[in-house]
Automatic annotation (TrEMBL):
This is NAD-dependent epimerase/dehydratase family protein. It comes from Aestuariibaculum lutulentum. SUPFAM superfamilies: NAD(P)-binding Rossmann-fold domains. InterPro entries: Epimerase_deHydtase, NAD(P)-bd_dom_sf, NAD(P)_epim/dehydratase. It holds the Pfam family Epimerase. Residues 6-232 form the NAD-dependent epimerase/dehydratase domain. PANTHER family: L-THREONINE 3-DEHYDROGENASE, L-THREONINE 3-DEHYDROGENASE, MITOCHONDRIAL. Signal peptide: none annotated. Belongs to the NAD(P)-dependent epimerase/dehydratase family.
Length: 314
């Protein structure tokens, strides 16, 4: 553990910016190389500007720091991805192939690759969607993740590369803002409540989606990466669940603290994306294989979000 050198791509993103801090806490500041296409404001630690579509640059950084693990978070998400489908496919796949190829060539010991509940489409059951249910994604992001997790498995089977993956639900945290996702409303809504402003939701009041709190997300990621190799039975990507709620339910949870908080509904194209996704997820396999258990439900999350955001805004 002392000699790990961990490269994180997309380290300036919603998840990346929190994950690098958790990795620095666990392995030490010198062990973590945060990389992103754009500079990360006020970042403390080792940072490299990196466009992961450029294989030579990735290889250079891996060699320069003698990287032993890669967390490849850089990607275009569901809603933004629909604006330019071919470019989204190109970026999401090219970056993954570069990471997989460089990892094999440079004998990287472990790779983390995030997948998403977006891999499911309208042919999977909406409730308690199982690990092995049919994948017919409706967005280019979902298609790239479904392909990507199969490529991850291919590199494991063919080259023995230890790639591990989670199908993240919508991630909610106070530390950072999401960008380009369909589940982003569930972060924005808390910011609006704290600022005592009204919120216009782009999903319908009853659009139930699977979500997870940031603390649980980070813990799940580190637990999966720490699990003994023999216990990992899923080499595509593990289903992961935190909680499920609708915009109406998260509003009610916030109104316990902000009774005057008002939400109106004006569904746009993201409602169509949400309608093709599961409402809740069966993550039995993750529980069995490496002991996954979420800690936060909706009300516990609301309490924690509001507490931390209040500190940020005051
Ligand atoms: C998105 O909304 O695109 C992401 C996801 C569920 O993968 N948050």
């Amino acid at each position: 553990m002392q000699n790990e050198k961990i490269l994180v791509t997309g380290a300036g993103g919603q998840l990346g910016s929190v994950l690098v801090e958790a990795l620095k806490n666990k392995f030490g500041e010198e062990a973590v190389i945060a990389s992103d296409l754009n500079p990360i404001k006020n970042y403390k630690g080792i940072y490299e500007q990196l466009d992961v579509t450029n294989k030579n640059c990735l290889e250079y950084i891996v060699k320069k720091y003698k990287v032993t693990q890669i967390y490849h978070l850089a990607a275009i998400l569901s809603a933004k991805g629909e604006q330019n489908p071919l470019q989204t496919w190109d970026i999401n796949m090219k970056t993954l192939f570069n990471v997989l190829e460089v990892s094999v060539a440079e004998k990287i010991s472990k790779v983390f690759y995030p997948s998403s509940i977006a891999v499911y489409g309208d042919m999977a059951p909406k409730m308690y969607t199982a690990q092995s249910d049919f994948l017919n994604p409706s967005t280019v992001y979902g298609i790239s993740k479904a392909a990507g997790e199969n490529w991850a498995q291919y590199y494991f089977l063919r080259y023995g590369l230890d790639v591990r993956s989670l199908r993240y639900p919508g991630v909610i945290g106070y530390q950072s803002l999401p960008g380009g996702g369909t589940t982003d409303y569930a972060v924005e809504i808390y910011h609006k409540a704290i600022k005592e402003e009204d919120f216009e939701c782009y999903l319908k009041a009853d659009a139930m989606l699977p979500m997870i709190y940031m603390d649980d997300t980070i813990r799940a990621t580190l637990e999966l990466m720490d699990a003994p190799k023999e216990s990992i039975s899923v080499r595509t990507s593990y289903n992961l669940h935190g909680m499920s709620f609708t915009p109406e339910q998260i509003t009610a949870s916030i109104q316990k603290y902000y009774p005057n908080f008002k939400v109106t509904y004006n569904p746009d194209f993201r409602q169509n994306i949400a309608e093709n996704w599961p409402s809740s997820i069966n993550d039995e396999q993750a529980r069995q294989d490496w002991g996954w258990e979420p800690k936060y439900d909706l009300d516990a999350m609301t309490q924690d979000m509001l507490k931390h955001l209040k500190e940020q805004y005051i």
